[in-house]
């Protein structure tokens, strides 16, 4: 590749090394990585209090109160930056105070030394952000818990992080108390929902509450029996108001948040990130998106705040003094919340954007009759204009069709960012013209919570993650075992390495795994395979490890699924595969002839007529593997077997090719000499088969 050409990124001179590509940067970071702007903002604490100072009366956090009298959600109500600031200060003081009240007096000194964790356990809602900001006022740090996490993972995370205080929604209190015997360090639980309002007919609850005053009394007695202090949010705020403690701002190097990865093959890893990591990210993301993110932007929050993607949006909104409206938490009512809020910025995920594509295309380009014909003509003309650089708007087709499709999300919509997994090009461009909005794909990860690669407005192809953002360095390194080399032509290929001040500190209590990915000189090895395109953009093309994502953003550990399938009596070997543009798994199954042949023959004899019975009796192993009825029933057998074992829906193989030829070391070279699956080679060997399974 000609790195001296006029590229969309800056190539650091003399940075090419054997086994590595040159280092790539944003043109805006050609001479220095450190932004010259916002020098006074060094921590997340600074981000929030700078916005309180500059925009005290601007709306900040909003929600839709629930009215139990009408069984309806009301319009959004907002608290200003100043109002939230007062609550944050009070809550921070209150957390320190209640922690002291439920600890040995001998430990009060260590409590005041700060830098201990507080877990937050709920859907995204204003109290999540208020809690997070409150922790920073006292140099405490957050442990993020997903609302949907199971008991075993919650138990592991709270013990692994040594968390003494949990702030949660009311529906989580009994779950925590039920595992209290397994949580010896848990001392305080704080309910985000007011105990006084339980059973009230006054508007204000976030969700229709199944609790009443009696159930609250039961919870309080239960907590007391476990020596756990149980409070509600307002109560702790009032305790803090009456016992004010001066702010104890964190240093940039101190912990900001401990987020746990999904843990598809074992216990999740705790990713320790600092105030410096997330502050640098907020500054870089703001500078890189300054043309699209304005100071009056309206964001909608509906994704888990225990994920770096949503956490990044929270800090971007706060940094730019925007307002953040929270969805009620019911994904089926999400678009009703969009209508009520009318956001200008939307952080999308492929799962929901694909659903929007299906909905909008069904009533436009895929509609029957004249409506469909007119819609297809309008969409084709708008996409041609878009590719030609003429923008997203059209004076005829927008009033006729696409103003209505834009309004499905928001009439004020200006900008969509999507990450997690790539969208197919036809989906991406159709949504661009349907929403009359800029849609950019972005690339980041928990260990480097920054948009490391971001598409530019003119990059209309899906799968192009883009160019390095401001303050980020990217390079590739050879992965010879997968035949990805930085000397490949025309596009160098290899594992993506990221270096910037947003790269995480370490994995909590796991030095070995930390050393595997922090490879020296500040580089983080992502495990993703990328290629550098002739224009200088970088595309994500594969995953180094066996873990990959489907289009809905779910991580898949194929080895785990293959090990599970191998326990089925009909299955001898299996290879599970998926594409990031598809929403389901496919597989190659090598059946065990000892069990498979009698099972398949019995199946055919029971479903066939007398003539076909005779043919079924004569079928050999290879013929049986090619039979459609046998294939269909084996897929059903795998589905039942997987569901009975508790596999997630996205982990269940939906289509299979049955191969009578076993995987081996010599004839098809799918196994290593130690009889392990060579996943990369298997994907190449069965490439055409996989394509047919998806078609």
Automatic annotation (TrEMBL):
UniProt entry keywords in alphabetical sequence: ATP-binding, Nucleotide-binding
GO CC terms, sorted: endoplasmic reticulum; membrane
TM region positions: none
Xref: InterPro entries: AMP-binding_CS (IPR020845), AMP-dep_synth/lig_dom (IPR000873), ANL_N_sf (IPR042099)
Gene3D superfamilies (UniProt xref): N-terminal domain of ligase-like
Cross-referenced Pfam families: AMP-binding
Residue ranges annotated for the AMP-dependent synthetase/ligase domain, each copy included: 80-508
GO molecular function, one term: ATP binding
Keyword Nucleotide-binding: yes
Alphabetical list of PROSITE patterns matching this protein: AMP_BINDING
Protein name: AMP-dependent synthetase/ligase domain-containing protein
Record organism: Smittium angustum
């Amino acid at each position: 590749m000609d790195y001296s050409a006029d590229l969309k990124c800056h190539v650091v001179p003399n940075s090419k090394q054997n086994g590595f590509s040159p280092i790539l940067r944003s043109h805006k970071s050609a001479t220095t990585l450190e932004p010259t702007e916002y020098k006074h903002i060094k921590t997340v604490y600074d981000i929030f209090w700078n916005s309180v100072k500059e925009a005290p009366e601007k709306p900040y956090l909003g929600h839709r109160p629930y009215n139990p009298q009408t069984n309806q959600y009301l319009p959004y109500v907002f608290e200003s930056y100043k109002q939230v600031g007062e609550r944050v200060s009070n809550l921070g003081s209150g957390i320190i105070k209640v922690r002291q009240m439920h600890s040995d007096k001998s430990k009060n000194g260590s409590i005041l030394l700060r830098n201990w964790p507080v877990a937050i356990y709920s859907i995204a809602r204003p109290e999540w952000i208020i809690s997070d900001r409150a922790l920073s006022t006292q140099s405490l740090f957050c442990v993020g818990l997903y609302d949907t996490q199971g008991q075993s993972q919650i138990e592991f995370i709270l013990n692994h992080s040594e968390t003494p205080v949990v702030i949660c929604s009311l529906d989580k209190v009994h779950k925590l108390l039920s595992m209290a015997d397994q949580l010896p360090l848990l001392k305080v639980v704080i309910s985000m929902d007011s105990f006084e309002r339980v059973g009230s007919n006054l508007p204000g609850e976030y969700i229709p509450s199944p609790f009443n005053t009696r159930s609250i009394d039961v919870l309080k007695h239960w907590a007391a029996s476990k020596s756990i202090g149980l409070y509600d949010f307002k109560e702790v705020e009032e305790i803090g108001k009456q016992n004010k403690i001066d702010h104890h701002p964190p240093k940039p190097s101190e912990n900001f948040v401990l987020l746990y990865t999904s843990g598809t093959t074992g216990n999740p890893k705790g990713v320790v990130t600092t105030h410096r990591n997330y502050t640098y990210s907020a500054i870089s993301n703001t500078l890189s998106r300054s043309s699209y993110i304005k100071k009056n932007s309206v964001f909608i929050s509906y994704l888990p705040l225990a994920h770096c993607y949503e956490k990044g949006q929270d800090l971007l909104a706060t940094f730019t003094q925007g307002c953040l409206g929270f969805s009620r938490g019911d994904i089926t009512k999400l678009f009703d919340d969009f209508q009520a809020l009318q956001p200008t910025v939307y952080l999308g995920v492929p799962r929901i954007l694909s659903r929007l594509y299906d909905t909008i295309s069904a009533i436009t380009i895929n509609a029957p009759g004249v409506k469909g014909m007119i819609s297809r003509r309008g969409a084709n003309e708008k996409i041609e204009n878009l590719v030609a650089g003429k923008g997203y708007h059209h004076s005829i087709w927008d009033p006729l069709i696409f103003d209505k499709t834009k309004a499905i999300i928001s009439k004020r919509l200006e900008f969509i960012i999507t990450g997690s997994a790539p969208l197919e090009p036809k989906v991406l461009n159709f949504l661009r013209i349907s929403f009359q909005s800029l849609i950019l794909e972005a690339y980041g990860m928990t260990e480097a919570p920054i948009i490391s690669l971001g598409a530019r407005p003119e990059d209309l192809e899906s799968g192009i993650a883009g160019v390095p953002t401001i303050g980020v360095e990217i390079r590739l390194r050879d992965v010879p075992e997968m035949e990805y080399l930085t000397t490949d032509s025309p596009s160098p290929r290899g594992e993506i390495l990221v270096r910037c001040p947003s790269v995480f500190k370490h994995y909590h209590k796991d030095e070995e795994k930390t050393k595997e990915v922090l490879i020296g000189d500040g580089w983080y090895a992502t495990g993703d395979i990328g290629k550098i395109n002739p224009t200088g953009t970088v595309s994500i093309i594969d995953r180094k490890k066996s873990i990959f994502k489907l289009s809905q953003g779910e991580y898949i550990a194929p080895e785990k699924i293959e090990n599970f399938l191998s326990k089925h009596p009909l299955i001898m070997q299996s290879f599970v595969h998926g594409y990031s543009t598809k929403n389901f798994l496919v597989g190659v199954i090598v059946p065990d002839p000892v069990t498979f042949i009698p099972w398949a023959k019995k199946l055919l004899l029971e479903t066939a007529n007398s003539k076909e019975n005779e043919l079924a009796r004569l079928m050999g192993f290879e013929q049986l593997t090619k039979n459609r009825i046998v294939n269909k029933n084996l897929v059903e057998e795998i589905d039942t077997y997987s569901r009975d074992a508790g596999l997630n829906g996205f982990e269940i193989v939906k289509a299979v090719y049955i191969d009578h030829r076993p995987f081996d070391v010599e004839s098809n070279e799918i196994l290593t000499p130690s009889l392990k699956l060579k996943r990369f080679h298997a994907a190449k060997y069965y490439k055409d088969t996989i394509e047919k399974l998806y078609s």
